[in-house]
């Protein structure tokens, strides 16, 4: 009897380094070792070091991932950060203009 191991692929967007609490840009695929949900903030290793990332998709289908990069995918080994450890976006400054 063989056991089928399901790999849990997730897509994340990285934190904006200049704007804490903002996650944007291209989506990157990782292998999640723990159960994650859309919206979770996680710590993700990159080739330039670790960073915070927001989970934007779970259960990404394996056939949508380029077979050449599958062996290179990094793992997210921990679960989501607790809410009190997640940076919050800074409120935008309001500028009032006068015409005259």
Automatic annotation (TrEMBL):
Residues 80-90 have a biased composition (Pro residues). Residues 78-100 are annotated as: Disordered. It comes from the Bacteria. This is Stage 0 sporulation protein.
